[in-house]
Amino acid sequence: MTTIPILKEREEQIYRKGSEPFNMQCEKHSLAGSVSQRACVFCGSRVVLYPVADALHLIHGPIGCAAYTWDIRGALSSGPELHRLSFSTDLQERDVIFGAEKKLYAALTELIEQYQPKAAFVYSTCIVGIIGDDVEAVCRKVGKEAGIPVLPVHSEGFKGTKKDGYKAACDALAQLIGTGETADISPISINIMGEFNIGGEAWMIKDYYRKIGVDVVSIMTGDGRVADIKRAHGAKLNVVQCSGSMTPLAEMMKEKYGIPFIRVSYFGIEDMAKALYDVAEHFPDQPEIMEKAQELVRSEVNRIYPELVKIREQVSGKRAAIYVGGAFKAFSLIKALRNLGMEVVLAGSQTGNEKDYEILRDMCNDGTVILDDANPLELSKYIIEKNADLFIGGVKERPIAYKMGIGFCDHNHERKTPLAGFEGMLNFAKEIFNTVTSPVWQFAPHRSGNEPEQLRNVVIQPSK
Amino acid sequence: MNTARKKISKNHTSTQNPCKLCSPLGASLVIRGISGAVPLLHGSQGCSTYIRRYLISHFKEPIDIASSNFGEDTAIFGGGANIKIALENIIAQYQPEMIGVATTCLSETIGDDVNMFIYEFLKQRKEIPTPPIVHISTPSYSGTHITGFHRANLEIVKTLAAEKTTTRKDHINVFAGMLSTADLRYLKEIFTDFDLKHMLLPDYSQTMDGTLWQQYQKIPAGGTTIDQIKDAGNASASLQMGRILNSESESAAKYLNETFDVPSYELGLPIGIKETDRLFEALEEISGKPTPQKYVEERGRLVDAYVDGHKYVNGLKAALYGEEDLVAGLASFLSEIGIVPVLCASGGESGRLESTLNEIMDKNISEKMKILEGMDFKNIEAEVESMSLELFIGNSKGYSVTRRKEIPLVRAGFPIHDRIGGQRILHVGYRGAQNLFDQIANTILDQRQKTSDIGYSYM
């Protein structure tokens, strides 16, 4: 067996339940030279604002940041699709030397003229602060001239972690909120926050809420529209998913507008049902909301249950590893996997906090490995050691799983399949079924059961 | 259309849907084509993560790229401390045979002296075995991913190629450009069949297109070995492919020629018969051997296929886009089969795409071509608006344009993010031309069947 060394500085961000005292470090800047799966501040902001489909997203910097985030997510829009285009000031050497405010002004003015967006977000990348561009001033000027909100997003890549990028995006959204008309908003209304409409998930969730009698004022930011965000302060409750990204905004709205918030998750039957019940509970004067919620859960579960049971028979007992961006998603996935009779042997996240990891520890069985801000070597080490059959993660985790002959389920923002809601749970189960039952693993050299003798015949053939 | 040098006709200030990537990506790929090497990007964490994601989506292989992970204090006080920690950690975890340090816009803008950092690091570790560390300057505000690719080749050779130790040896250096893994494998097969020992730099044919693993590989096996690179100054010749690359003032082959007198054969990307013939002529000259029968036959079958399919492709009009040398190679190939590349567009801005194409193409064809540098897909879409086209040829990023225009796309180059096997598309040599020709002809036939009222099942 290859030994994969763990860097000393990383040891405290790895916890093995049951065998050691819990003293997990987290929320640290990634270790230099360790190949973190995290991205940067810019990534955090881009992820949160990306689905706002009628806004212009201009990335102020050299071309890379814009090129790598062009149309990469499955965030759907029911109308305009400005979010699927990539706009960059594409800074050149001369801009770096002489400053790029004029270029930014020209680019913004032209783009607004060309695309007529309802607002513009201007993302600062690493070098913008260094070269000293006054992005705020340019945004103010163009905003005034164009008559739309032009919002700077302070997302210089090195100024913190992805979480600081979430915060910068929330700050930009906060400038929109409170500027729209709220007179006609129903007293039974919510904002859906931290839901990005991957594969149409937000539409499903919104439809559930509508069916139980709750109006949705805005979705931040799935299938997002500037006008809806502007009037978000008229909602009576903020329902926050993906707690990492949108909690700062929910807290701000609580303070400024007195809107309470609850944290939910839409992944898995249990959490999806709870997300409906928790909202219903918030409107106790309307008991029919709870009744409808119960009815909806019943009928939806009945609809998907027979198929889920069939899949459960096939996948039950398989071992799963989870490595996702936010820890909150990991909680839901653990529950959803248990529903399918699967065992979680590794759980980790890029950005979890101390509280999150305590919850994870409490949820997991003894022996489960819990990781914060892991790197490919650590992930490989533990999926092999724990003999996982399935890995749930994103694009960067996928080849790690495949090389070792392990099935994979894509659960990040690049996927095109909705995995939230009841329908999403069924999709999730189908995807797991699809990957773990594929006959291709019989040829994978690492898989247990594939004896070395047999391998020599099957796999290590000269390719001539 | 005239052939006068087109001033960059981008009619907007911003870049909209870019037809290029940033230079650290190219450098990272080169480093992953060297045996036991690990890339380190000196900048923010996002650069390495985004580039990994982008490369993984094309190659569908793990690619570990470390980051020196700038924080706010790093940006103020410089990245010296971070780079050293990063190098220590990479050595501890990966035990690499080489580390390639590519800079980013951030570390370049704050003026980090990376050479000095590396020098100090090596000095500190005088007593400890330390792999070679190569510094590659890749500010993303200058050039494209191709700039970073060629710059990495040059710096690696400059750093590693040692003094000439012996008289000429019988091996050759090959700088083949940013090709697919299938292209690299095929080129190696050709050299082997000529009995030519070769140092192909970079060679990610295995590292970025490997098998499943029995045991986890910290650094996937394969790649150009450090010893091969060290020996580059003793080679009997260098082959460098890419006419635009060859017209640069600096390149790996030029360096080896100037420093070690290694004769340099400067070729185009060998796409299509004519450019491939030039490669085989060079190989015959270097090896003193005739082209092996196998390739004579490949060429023969290719001509046979050209003849079988000529009526379906002759006179078609296509739009070509991508990195400049690929565009030049594909244009040369298309002109052999009668397809007019009425638009040749690149995000690169060497200033020499047009003159290069005029060099390769017959005047009567090049007169019908619009050749544009510094293009993004917004421009490309605007350009093709008034053109009647049968075909687009290029990477996946042009898909959205072809979808709106309802014109088929034949995929070539990098990145191919929307297909399985994008990393294995064969472009070069007679076999590559065969593949492209079949793809193009069949795409046209498929299109005819789909739009036909009758739908014949024979030709």
Give a summary of the structure in a few sentences.
By secondary structure, chain A is of the alpha/beta class. In chain A, 44% of the residues lie in helices and 14% in strands.
The end-to-end span of chain B amounts to 35 Å
Question: Helix fraction of chain A?
Answer: 40-55%
How is the biggest beta sheet of chain A arranged?
Answer: 6 strands, mixed
Which blocks of ≥5 consecutive residues of chain B have pLDDT under 50? 1-8
The rounded Rg of chain A comes to: 23 Å
Total beta-strand segments of chain A: 14
CATH arch. level architecture of the domain at 41-175 in chain A: 3-Layer(aba) Sandwich
Number of strands of chain B: 14
User: What do the pLDDT scores of chain B average to?
Assistant: 95
Describe this protein's structure.
The complex is a heterodimer of chains A (464) and B (459). In chain A, the strands form three sheets. In chain A, strands 1-12-11-10-13-14 form a six-stranded mixed β-sheet, with helices on both faces. Among the domains of chain A are: 41-175, Nitrogenase molybdenum iron protein domain (Rossmann fold, 3-Layer(aba) Sandwich), CATH 3.40.50; 189-298, Rossmann fold (3-Layer(aba) Sandwich), CATH 3.40.50. Chain A is 44% helix and 14% strand. Chain A has 464 residues and is of the alpha/beta class. With 459 residues, chain B is α/β, with parallel strands linked by helices. Chain B has a five-stranded parallel β-sheet with strand order 12-11-10-13-14, with helices on both faces. In chain B, helix 7 (145-160) runs parallel beside helix 11, helix 12 packs across helix 14 and helix 13 (293-313) packs parallel to helix 19. The chains are: A alpha/beta (464), B alpha/beta (459). Chains A and B meet through helix 1, helix 2, strand 3, helix 3 and helix 4 of A and strand 1, helix 2, strand 3, helix 3 and helix 4 of B.
